[in-house]
Amino acid sequence: MQLTAQMVKARALELGADAVGIGNIERWEGAPIQQDPRQIMPEARSVIAMAFRVMRGSLRGVEEGTFFSNYSAMGYGGLTYLYMPMTVIGLSRFIEDAGLEAIPYGHQSDWRAVNTVGETTGKSRPVAPGRAEPDVMVHQRIAAYLCGLGEIGFSKMLLTPQFGPRQRVGIIITEAELEPDPIYSGPPLCNRCLACVRECPGKAFDPSKTVKVTLAGHEVEWMDIDCKACDIAFRGAIIDDSVSAEDSYHNFGDGHRSRPGNWSPFYKKPRSLYNTGQAVCGSRGCTRACMISMEARGVVTNKFAKPFRRRKPWSVDWTKPYEPTQQDDIDKSETD
Ligand code: SF4
Ligand code: SF4
């Protein structure tokens, strides 16, 4: 069977991807060795990137302040660790049935040899000169850009014309030579409105400092991101070492204690769902605010009858005591 890009894309959509694009491997020329797919498969000819939408409904409960687990489970952990691998593996099987190797690449971050800013962590060594330290971590959002799925926004989130910032990405690295899609050049998706900056509870973005990279000959620029600040705020926490160990919202493993921020209604950080889902902030800036901005500008094709933000955003005033009702059974036990 002669495999074509059209066949691969049709199968990807049948298997559950919401959008699919293909990039030829030459687009990774100049990629850092630790993020270069050719380090994993030297004979790779193509990368296939698929977008899996986060349901707008999965953000509804966080927006209303009443149901937080659905985004972490169905919009994050479950989508990333369950749904996406099934599609990525299914499509890899389709390619391998044509006699061409395909690597189903989901999120295997726990073994990666680079941290969130691309620095090596020194936990492994190359097996031979010229090879990367295991494990290589292909940058999935950049892969999506190089496969033509959309733009990298000023927030460094992948923005697609279908869903804006509201998706996760899975890729396949394959030796199949497939016709590539052009790099996205449609209507601009990010207009630098800075809604992501204003609404990020961790103040993780610094618009005065930017990172510029050249991807397949295109200059792309995004804001400097304080990943540590995001990591803390994402879980709903504010570092506060004056809090007792017993009352600490979450112990970060570095000796710091914390209390809940006004964007978390929880006494303690809730347990992770599907391994890593613990997004108490509900991606308030980088996803919700950005999506609201993009929908208002009419630049996403997944349209809804009603706007997403329907009520005044909530905030928890932790300085005021809460008087529980008799029915409340307050559980302040430490979770993971
Ligand atoms: S919120 Fe505005 S500035 Fe930030 S990524 Fe989205 S469109 Fe760009
Ligand atoms: S996940 Fe939350 S804390 Fe992190 S950048 Fe997005 S809005 Fe900010």
Number of helices: 8
Which compounds are bound in this model? iron/sulfur cluster
CATH architecture identity of the domain at 5-185: 3-Layer(aba) Sandwich
Arithmetic mean pLDDT: 94
**What general form does the structure show?**
globular
Can you give a write-up of this model?
This protein has helices at residues 5-15, 37-40, 60-64, 69-96, 140-146, 195-199, 227-234, 284-297, and strands at 19-24, 46-53, 102-105, 151-152, 158-159, 167-174, 205-215, 218-225, 237-239, 258-260. The protein has 336 residues and is an alpha+beta fold. The chain has a domain at 5-185: NADH Oxidase. Strands 1-2-6-3 form a 4-stranded antiparallel beta sheet, sandwiched between helices. A two-stranded antiparallel ribbon has the order 4-5. The protein is globular. The protein binds iron/sulfur cluster (2 copies). Residues 153-155, 157, 190-196, 289-290, 293-294 line the site of one iron/sulfur cluster.
